[in-house]
Amino acid sequence: MSERLFSAMLFYIHVPFCRARCAYCSFFSIAVGRRNPPADYVPALVRDIAWLGSKFGAKAQDTNARDTVTSIFFGGGTPSLLSPEDITNILGAIGQHFSLAPDAEISMEANPESLQEKSRVQAFREAGVTRISMGVQSMSDNDLRTLGRIHTVEQAQKAAEHVHAAGFASFGIDLMWGLPGQSLEGWLNILHKACELAPDHISAYGLTIEEGTRLERSIEQGKLVLPEENALAQMFLQGHETLEARGFEHYEISNFARKGHACRHNRGYWQGTDYLGVGAGAVSTWRGQRVSEPCDLKYWLASEPHERNRDIEQLDRQTVREEHIMLSMRTKRGLDVTSLDRDGGDFLGENMSYILALVDAGLACIRHEGSKTFLALTPRGMLASNDIVARFF
Fold first, then answer.
1. What is the pTM of this model?
2. 317-393 has which fold?
3. Dihedral of CA 224/19/50/103: which sign?
4. 3-270: which CATH topology?
């Protein structure tokens, strides 16, 4: 039997609907207000899953295409706007058409305002969700208003209580730092309050000002002022120290987890695992191709998956290598240089003087594990990761 039969794959379900568009958001999303997501969206997801299953699923004619799904991630938008029954139907379709690992991680992004009913949160758990990733963003109501979030700190606390009571295998929260008017002391206070929610995982993202957003306009008009670079650096470094002291491992630039609670889905992305994306605006990376579904909801709903126009990017060997270096260097584990050079090349030799300069400056470290050599950034190096890694290309 082919070894290929047992390789892992990831599944991403895109749910582009949200109650209101946040001030900083530039993603493809559709604000539905108090309305439910369109009733024909989930049936269309199920339709596309069946089509993908015929090509890559458990019954695909090409046995080399039959991978085992080890992780499913519902992202958005706000996937928790779907009903628990919708989640059941989607997971049922994946289980019908693909080989699903018994211990698969099934994550769902959620906003606090959609997790206020204890019975609804429990129903998501019973539908098969094993991991909740809740978009808290801040533990300050003033910050939440600045960001255009529609929940309050009190709602985040209530939602966290419901998630714990439901017994999910893992509970993560998203936070943002470097917000307008934020001080170092203010950010560390946010972290302390966030830890009181007892999460297993914290994603802490530095605020990025995206072009065309309401937040960008407010900053350009002088209504809001961002922290200075030195303050931002201290927020990152002292945030790292604070969370590690609380028992979290800083396993990727923006991610911290208690032992056994690292996000398997995102780790798959960073390790270059193939993934299939379903839904309007979803992206797949599969067998050397990156395929993007259209962001036109009306067209996506009306078109049959085998006839739909998609953006397709062929990933050549150099592109795959560069993306692997970039993603690996975001992680605490770092870049497995030995495996990188297995198919030819001499990464260490070609970059040795630069790497030694990084090590001397305290920005990187070289680590040996058995016969393998790893190159990883230190927390200080992570601060300048984009500039550091760009020098390798």
1. 0.94
2. Arc Repressor Mutant, subunit A (1.10.10)
3. positive
4. TIM Barrel (3.20.20)
